[in-house]
Design a protein that fits this description.
There is one protein chain. It contains 2 helices and 6 strands; from the N terminus they run αβαβββββ. The chain has 129 residues and is mainly β. It has a 5-stranded mixed beta barrel with strand order 2-3-4-6-5. A hairpin with a 2-residue loop joins strand 3 and strand 4. The radius of gyration is 17 Å and the shape is globular.
């Protein structure tokens, strides 16, 4: 019996990319995930998610890995010291000159960037709606 309970608990925790403490998304709603989760969870590529963080001003040096993935106007969303590039419009509360907190709905995309010569590294980024 204890083995069955343990197996059920393992399955329940492994069934999706939910942020700890976040409520389960309603049917058809995107899951709320952290910036770190976007950067570390390969299974999110192609998924639409809700991500909260600080929109960094355009003049901020790149905290996200590599250069802008699609356009020079791509921007960074940062939370707890890690940042991800975002392709698409900045939310209204985010300006080009000041840092602002925001939550965006975006699709997780991925490309490759050169690292140390010929080796290419996978890099996730967000495509905002």
């Amino acid at each position: 019996m204890r083995t069955m309970i343990l197996a059920a608990a393992v399955l329940a925790t492994a069934c999706g990319p939910r942020q700890v403490g976040a409520p389960a998304p309603k049917q058809g709603e995107p899951a709320a995930v952290s910036v770190r989760t976007v950067l570390t969870t390969q299974a999110l590529v192609g998924q639409t998610v809700l991500v909260s963080g600080y929109c960094l001003p355009a003049a901020t040096p790149a905290k996200a890995h590599g250069t802008q993935p699609v356009r020079r106007s791509d921007w960074q969303l940062e939370e707890h010291g890690v940042a991800v590039w975002v392709n698409g419009p900045k939310p209204a509360e985010c300006s080009a000159a000041t840092e602002a907190r925001s939550t965006i709905t975006a699709t997780v995309a991925q490309d490759t960037i050169p690292e140390f010569g010929r080796v290419r590294q996978l890099r996730p980024y967000l495509v905002a709606r």
